[in-house]
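dude i think i finally got it to work??
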Amino acid sequence: MDKELLEKTANELVSPGRGILAADESNGTMSKRLEAVGVDASAESRRSYRTNLFSTDGYESSISGVILFDETIRQSMDDGIPVPNALSDRGVHPGIKVDTGAKELAHHEGEKITEGLDGLRERCEEYFEMGARFAKWRAVIKIGDGLPSSACLTTNAHALARYAAICQEQGLVPIIEPEVLMEGDHDANRCYEVTADILDETFAQCKLQGVHIPGALLKPNMIIAGKDCDSQISREEVARMTVECLTAYVPHDLPGIVFLSGGQSDEDATAHLNLMNQMGVEHPWQLSYSYGRALQAEALRTWASGESGSDSSSREAFAHRARMNGLARSGEWEEGLEA
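look at this
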């Protein structure tokens, strides 16, 4: 394990004013998103959309890394330069999604276990040679009647720790993503409890597996009530409860936390991050972002319109959202800037 390389990469990924673009949707998910905006889905249309984003002028000032899917890391830009090389040339770290998806957890109806440990060492070795310097693995935790079970928490935490250890062995910074889903009618207090449980179990497993915490990043959900809950909390309460939970359950030698947007609106995701970074306390880690839809939604709609100049308009939409979140990294975002 090259601890110096891991720590250097992890700190660069959460450098001031920058965050991560999650462009790692599976082929199936990306195809559905393209079809939803009227674009025929194919390997070429997926490549064309994503490489258009990667051609945005100056986006590297707000984006430190891009998480890619296996298909994308093997593709090239319009000028023939491999995607990982094009990112690295802009000072942006290429990353890679390495899990193979969440499947039904045996004997636990309605719960999932993320798979992909088989052959992971060899895949990480290949991805590193292709230019990747960090990786992502997502576990999904559902809140419901009697859920999550202890089995769901422990099996997913163990898998996250095993993944992280293997990635670090091969020189990749692991982004550890235990996502507590927003689906359901649970309140924010229940979200806090479950988030605390999965964080506690995950870092306990990381300790057992010898994961080097200063060479890793965490991608958690924020503390938000379920979508169907009648009692939603304010943006200020989301920020406060999220930071309280993380401070209590995340190791303080972790370099950074890169939040997922998890179905929030573009502006909510930015506003919540901004409020956390405006708090009058010194957080032990960098508070940043690893957003997918919250960075891409408007860019995708604009690109799909097919109108004259849609490529450049799409890049402008992406650049705007990246800038807004870059400002939120230092608590300098304001709603008026959205105009």
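The radius of gyration is 19 Å.
im so relieved honestly
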